[in-house]
Design a protein that fits this description.
This protein is about 40% helix and about 20% strand. With about 150 residues, the protein is α+β, with helices and mostly antiparallel strands. It has one domain: HIT family, subunit A, CATH 3.30.428. It has a 5-stranded antiparallel beta sheet, with helices on one face.
């Protein structure tokens, strides 16, 4: 049952790339982190243990599939997986491709943004532009894998 006070019950949470009756996969549309993807459980639950074992398996299978497609399509240096729910207490996973030159690396993307010199900022912008050009292919590959797997 949707919660009227829950942002993820009331909005998609980003651009929907794929969904089924249990969950949706969205592009978070984060300017600093192109490719940042969320996997959001459709029903309003807060914790993984609110799901049945089969539902847990389905959700984790999709999270890992997103990670795998990110690694293949975007070739990040690292992928961060996170399921906090402290700010939005609705079960969702963040799948975040990370590069050693990203503004927060190696800290979490939610950390305070450190200052960077002009050369570092230029390198970050160039890499973000390259990744941005790959997003359409990433989205297509992700949807194809989800469709063929689930």
């Amino acid at each position: 049952m949707p919660n009227i006070d829950c942002q993820l019950c009331q909005t998609p949470g980003g651009t929907v790339l794929w969904q089924n009756q249990h969950l949706r996969v969205i592009d978070a549309c984060d300017a600093l982190y192109p490719g940042f993807t969320r996997v959001i459980w459709a029903a309003h639950v807060v914790e993984m243990t609110d799901l049945t074992s089969a539902e847990q398996a389905e959700l984790l299978r999709v999270v890992l599939l997103v990670e795998q497609v990110q690694r293949t399509a975007l070739k990040p240096d690292k992928v961060n997986l996170a399921a906090f729910g402290n700010v939005v207490p609705h079960l969702h996973w963040h799948v975040i491709p990370r590069w050693q030159d990203d503004p927060h690396f190696p800290q979490a993307v939610w950390a305070a943004l450190p200052s960077a010199d002009a050369a570092a900022q230029a390198a970050q912008q160039a890499r973000r532009a390259r990744v941005q050009q790959q997003l359409s292919a990433y989205h297509q590959a992700l949807v194809a894998r989800l469709e063929s797997t689930l």
